[in-house]
């Protein structure tokens, strides 16, 4: 089973991914968790740019595609073929949102990615208003980085919300407690 959690920064994706992995492991399932950008060469360059200044929109998109191609071939596809549960903290829907907010066409980004990247069985969009997301980022001890500017995050949120309506997409209100959000995710999967 292939599960992806998406949403703007601070919505609780990393936290919920770990709780969900624990749930599957309690059921005896073998679970692989991962994130994008990865810690590979392209992902590391992208993470560095969050602090030092964003790359050009063209280079940023190119690096995310290169990072994901390596991620699909080296981890995602082999894990799925081995029958493991794969849970991702971000995937190509973030590319649609974040690089879409920089002027690229989200539909074209989706087509480019789905040419090589498997479509997940379940996509959970964790939704939160930008102000609350920012306060959670601050509560985590971070300050907003180059990807987390307020106006950009609002555009990203709108693109994520445009994905709802497809059968594999589930909108999860992330304003509740950690437990409420995880309960809502598990209810879909149960
Ligand atoms: N439902 C919640 N209620 C209150 N605080 C939360 C909730 N979920 C997560 N948090 C807290 O908000 C902060 C951000 O959570 P987390 O890092 O999981 O978000 P994220 O979506 O992965 O963020 P990013 O995309 O920036 O990595 C953390 O300090 C976390 O403990
Ligand atoms: C996969 C992906 C991610 N991003 C951005 C979104 C985040 O602000 C940063 C780092 O992610 P994290 O969740 O804070 O670890 O990368 C992006 O712009 N495009 C993408 O495809």
Automatic annotation (TrEMBL):
The keyword ATP-binding applies. GO terms for molecular function: dTMP kinase activity. Its EC number is 2.7.4.9. PROSITE patterns: THYMIDYLATE_KINASE. It is an enzyme of class 2 (transferase). Coiled coil: none annotated. Residues 5-185 form the Thymidylate kinase-like domain. It holds the Pfam family Thymidylate_kin. This is Thymidylate kinase. The keyword Transferase applies. InterPro entries: P-loop_NTPase (IPR027417), Thymidylate_kin-like_dom (IPR039430), Thymidylate_kin_CS (IPR018095), Thymidylate_kinase (IPR018094). It catalyses: dTMP + ATP = dTDP + ADP. ATP binds at residues 7-14. Residues 31-51 are annotated as: Disordered. PANTHER family: THYMIDYLATE KINASE, UMP-CMP KINASE 2, MITOCHONDRIAL. Phosphorylation of dTMP to form dTDP in both de novo and salvage pathways of dTTP synthesis. Belongs to the thymidylate kinase family.
């Amino acid at each position: 089973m292939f599960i992806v959690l998406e949403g703007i920064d601070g919505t609780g994706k990393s936290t919920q991914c770990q709780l969900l992995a624990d749930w599957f492991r309690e059921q005896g399932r073998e679970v692989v968790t991962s994130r994008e950008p990865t810690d590979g060469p392209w992902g590391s360059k992208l993470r560095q740019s969050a602090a030092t200044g964003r790359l050009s929109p063209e280079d940023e998109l190119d690096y995310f595609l290169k990072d994901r191609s390596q991620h699909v071939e080296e981890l995602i596809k082999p894990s799925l073929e081995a029958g493991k549960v794969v849970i991702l903290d971000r995937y190509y829907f973030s590319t649609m949102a974040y690089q879409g907010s920089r002027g690229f066409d989200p539909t074209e980004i989706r087509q480019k990615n789905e040419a090589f990247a498997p479509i997940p069985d379940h996509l959970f969009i964790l939704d939160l208003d930008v102000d609350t997301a920012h306060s959670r980022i601050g509560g985590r001890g971070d300050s907003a980085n180059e990807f987390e500017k307020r106006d950009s995050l609002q555009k990203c949120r709108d693109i994520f919300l445009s994905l709802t309506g497809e059968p594999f997409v589930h909108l999860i209100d992330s304003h509740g407690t950690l437990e409420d959000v995880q309960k809502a995710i598990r209810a879909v999967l149960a």
